[in-house]
Structure to design on (489 residues):
């Protein structure tokens, strides 16, 4: 029996005292050991033990600290933990309250990367046949990246300079930390439901392997694979390869490069268009001169009449087109018209007029079309015959071949 | 998307127009066309060029933010870039 002088403690009091002793006499420290009995509670707290050959200690890692983890600890992983020693009073068991957890060596991250890469490769997520082309002249592009930071500004700068014909729509996401991968995956999926962009650029700027980790997460890889909108990945620097890069339809070495790859250069497209104009004009003039020569050589009235007729008809059409096209185009059409006018002049010199003078005549139907084939007319049709001088209205009596 | 609508069909696609122009140019340059067909192609080409040029003048650069309304619908709103230090 204790004597009266001695204090009697309740269990709770005892545990509270031991806890105070542990917490005040043992400073925060680093402990290394192997993870076992790992449980991730739905509250976000992690419970596990650290052990070595000689013993083990219970550990808790509260949600706030656990959020900075890239990988959840798994049984068997060697870890280095920054911890406060404390007592779990309910169980009377001492435990570590983990503040930081480093998975020992870069080996584990690299291993996790290789494991996921192999798994997704086996499943066909990297198949070249699944990769879609990026639409060439976009009017709207979706961006999945951080709303702050240089990356967004770089992308905007490049696209605004090269191709200011499109809109950029940002779905802002955190690009690092636990949970960033899920947010990125969700943003990609949201763009697919939204639908009013032609493709996506998904990425972030350079950083450590840990900073880029979100782009190695399975959720991101699957979201890119499932995306109906083509995806350009743009993560970190040239040397950084993430799982997202393997799945993406196009991998850009950096975010600025992604912007360069995503859009054409407006000035180049404009000059390419002008080239088309010049080439068409030259080809046409060449064709016309070739035709003219052939006609001269053949000297056949029918062909010449047909051409003269055609030239007239097309000049009229071009005059109409010229009006429609407006001032931008008028010089080009004008040029052609001048050329065609010249052509009809030279044709006139040896053309229908001179043919008529030789005694031929041109018959036209009521619409003014030149009759080239008796099949196109029938008895009782009214025709106009045109002579070198004057004309006559006639009625068809009979046709034959 | 306003100034250029006049001579531009609703379903105008720059990519399609440029592809067709390429075909037209190649056909004309091949010389394997009759003169009236050539004139037709030229005219079609000129019209496409006019439409393409007009569409290239539709400078319409904007940066918007995608947001989800309480009803689960999407909307976009104009966004101003946050000025900050040039961190990555």
């Amino acid at each position: 029996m204790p004597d009266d002088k001695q204090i009697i403690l309740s269990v709770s009091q005892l545990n509270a005292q031991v806890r105070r002793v542990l917490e005040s006499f043992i400073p925060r420290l680093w402990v290394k050991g192997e993870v076992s009995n790992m449980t991730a509670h739905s509250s976000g707290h992690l419970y596990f033990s650290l052990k070595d050959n000689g013993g083990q200690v219970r550990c808790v890692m509260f949600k706030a600290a656990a959020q900075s983890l890239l990988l959840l600890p798994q049984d068997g992983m060697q870890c280095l933990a920054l911890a406060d020693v404390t007592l779990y009073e309910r169980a009377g068991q001492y435990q570590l309250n983990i503040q930081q957890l480093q998975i020992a060596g870069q080996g584990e991250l690299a291993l996790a990367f290789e494991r996921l890469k192999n798994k997704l490769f086996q499943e066909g997520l990297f198949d070249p046949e699944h990769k879609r082309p990026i639409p060439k002249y976009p009017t709207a592009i979706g961006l999945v990246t951080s709303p702050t930071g240089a990356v967004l500004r770089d992308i905007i700068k490049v696209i605004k300079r090269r191709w200011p014909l499109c809109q950029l729509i940002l779905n802002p996401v955190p690009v690092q930390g636990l949970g960033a991968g899920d947010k990125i995956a969700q943003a990609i999926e949201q763009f697919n439901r939204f639908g009013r962009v032609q493709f996506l650029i998904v990425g972030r700027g350079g950083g450590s392997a840990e900073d880029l980790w979100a782009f190695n997460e399975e959720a991101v890889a699957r979201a890119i694979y499932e995306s109906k909108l083509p995806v350009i990945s743009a993560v970190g620097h040239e040397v950084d390869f993430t799982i997202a890069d393997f799945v993406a339809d196009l991998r850009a070495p950096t975010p600025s490069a992604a912007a360069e790859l995503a859009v054409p250069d407006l000035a180049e497209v404009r000059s390419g268009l002008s080239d088309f104009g010049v080439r068409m004009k030259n080809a046409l003039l060449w064709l016309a001169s070739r035709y003219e020569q052939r006609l001269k050589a053949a000297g056949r009235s029918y062909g010449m009449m047909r051409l003269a007729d055609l030239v007239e008809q097309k000049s009229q059409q071009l005059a109409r087109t010229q009006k429609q096209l407006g001032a931008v185009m008028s010089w080009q059409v004008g040029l052609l018209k001048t050329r065609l006018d010249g052509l009809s002049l030279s044709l006139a010199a040896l053309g229908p007029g001179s043919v008529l003078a030789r005694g031929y005549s041109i018959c036209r139907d009521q619409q003014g079309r030149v009759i080239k084939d008796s099949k196109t007319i029938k008895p009782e049709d009214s025709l106009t015959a045109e002579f070198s001088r004057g004309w006559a209205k006639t009625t068809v009596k009979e046709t034959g071949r | 998307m306003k100034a250029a609508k006049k001579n531009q069909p609703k379903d105008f696609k720059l990519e399609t127009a440029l592809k067709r122009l390429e075909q037209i140019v190649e056909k004309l340059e091949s010389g394997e066309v009759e003169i009236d067909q050539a004139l037709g192609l030229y005219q079609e080409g000129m019209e496409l060029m006019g439409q393409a040029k007009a569409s290239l003048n539709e400078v319409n650069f904007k940066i918007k933010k995608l947001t989800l309304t309480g009803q689960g619908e999407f909307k976009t709103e104009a966004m101003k870039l946050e000025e900050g230090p040039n961190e990555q």
